[in-house]
Design brief:
By secondary structure, the chain is α+β, with helices and mostly antiparallel strands. The protein has 9 helices and 26 strands. It folds into 2 domains: about 1-120, Roll (SH3 type barrels), CATH 2.30.30; about 130-420, Fumarylacetoacetate hydrolase, domain 2. The chain has helices at about 50-55, 75-80, 80-95, 110, 135-145, 245-250, 255-260, 330-340, 365-370, and strands at about 30, 35-45, 45-50, 115, 120, 130-135, 165, 170-175, 180, 185, 195-200, 200-205, 205-210, 230-240, 240, 265, 270, 280, 300, 305-310, 315-325, 350, 380, 385, 395-405, 405-420.
Length: about 425
């Protein structure tokens, strides 16, 4: 695809460490003081107003309803199909290209570029359904060692299917939205009755999410071969977890209030097409998977992931450096398994990877693992320690790919924890 070429340069100044070079051109929704929510892309430190680009006739030869760019969510734009969304991304690449002469973009910056500091980024999609997986073998092994027998850390089904559960779509929030510490039942003393109050073991979970871009009918299944036709792009995902609430409620049906209070996503959806140069092989799957989960080609992605914790009155400290390439079950397998029973999917549905942990302590994707269930506290720059997340802490997630001098990033997924709301 033209937009991915590493030699492209934009006439918009883009810093070398920017997440948004001309090769990225992600999609999002922004709000400005002069107009309501609308679709956008990003270049350097600017938001690209797609409504304004359309008003200047740059999309006239691309057949789609330009009105979808002025809607509150990207769903209707995404539903136009990859023929349209890829054409829009390629046209932006042509307009922004320093050496492209077909499109006269002189003075265009005055009409279509908005400084990011002046733009409020919004949740980019209307999420109908949300599913969370459990697909990092390193994470699943760590959890098995912490709570079960280290010799049998993985449950019998884990290497045969992508384990998942249906989460709560309504509480998925965009970056920079405060996260209230959840209330709930916990059982701190095994010999005493449960108690009610704020979670004391609030945690983050480092994940990637993918967004559905094409519907299926009830009874239809997606295969690993055509799964990418249904995946629009990826997003950073923090699956906040209240470990103490979760531990008490977990048996027999699994996560509920310990997960449903909030999940934080980045505001930018990076397309699969932008990530094409960063494909790589996944881990060897042993034992061999059933036929419907087999796949061909490179289906994992080399995406660097980082988590930092910033106390309210102190500098941030990086506590995790991981990578999306570690995933045992890839997105195509996850989607194939999710739909093998005929479950239908819809544009805007969100799927999260599950916590992404690497093989080393510094790459663990949750405080539960980093501090080994609170036994190894993390020292913070202000002299305090963290076993889990404290009120006033901001958890900052970042993700980016780098190859041949090109960096494709996701922005940030940030959430500041505020005290629990009182229950009267």
């Amino acid at each position: 695809m033209r937009a991915n070429h590493p030699g492209l340069q934009s006439w918009v100044k883009v810093a070398p460490d920017s997440d948004f070079p001309i090769q990225n051109l992600p999609f999002g929704i922004f709000h400005h003081k002069e107009f309501g929510p609308r679709a956008c892309s990003a270049i350097g430190d600017f938001v690209i107003d797609l409504v304004a680009v359309a008003e200047h006739s740059f999309f006239d030869d691309i057949e789609f309803d330009k009105g979808v760019l002025a809607k509150r969510y990207l769903n209707d734009f995404i539903a136009c199909g990859k023929t349209v969304t890829n054409a829009v991304r390629n046209r932006l690449s042509e307009i922004l290209d320093t050496d492209h002469e077909e499109w006269d973009a002189k003075g265009l910056e005055d009409f279509v570029l908005v400084p990011m500091a002046e733009a409020k980024m919004l949740l980019p999609i209307r999420i109908g359904d949300y599913t969370d997986f459990y697909s990092s073998m390193e994470h699943a092994t760590n959890i098995g060692c912490l709570f079960r027998d280290p010799e049998n850390a993985l449950l019998p089904n884990w290497k045969h299917l992508p384990v998942g559960y249906h989460g709560r779509a309504s509480s998925i929030i965009v970056s920079d939205t405060p996260v209230a510490r959840p209330n709930g039942q916990t059982k701190p003393d095994p010999e005493q009755p449960p108690v009610f109050g704020p979670s004391r073991l609030l945690d983050f979970e480092l994940e990637m999410g993918f967004v559905i871009g094409k519907d299926t009918e009830l009874g239809e299944s997606v295969t690993t071969a055509n799964a990418e036709d249904h995946i629009f792009g990826l997003i950073l995902f923090n699956d906040w977890s209240a470990r103490d609430i979760q531990k008490w409620e977990y048996v027999p049906l699994g996560p509920f209030l310990g997960k449903s209070f909030a999940s934080t996503v980045s505001p930018w959806i990076v397309t699969l097409e932008a990530l094409e140069p960063f494909r790589q092989p996944g881990p060897v799957q042993d034992p061999a998977v059933l036929p419907y989960l087999k796949y061909d080609g490179l289906r994992n992605y080399d995406i660097n992931l980082q988590v930092a914790i910033k106390p309210e009155s102190s500098e941030a400290k990086v506590v995790c450096n991981s990578n999306f390439k570690y995933m045992y079950w890839n997105m195509c397998q996850q989607l194939a398994h999710h739909t093998v029973n005929g479950c239908n999917i819809r544009v805007g549905d969100m799927y999260a990877s599950g916590t992404i942990s690497g093989p080393e302590v510094g790459s663990y994707g949750s405080m539960l693992e980093i501090t080994w269930k609170g036994t190894k506290p993390v020292d913070m720059p202000d002299g305090s320690q963290r076993k889990f997340i404290a009120d006033g802490d901001t958890v900052i997630m970042r993700g980016w790919c780098e190859k041949n001098g090109v960096r494709i990033g996701f922005g940030e997924a940030n959430g500041k924890v505020v005290p629990a709301k009182s229950i009267t």
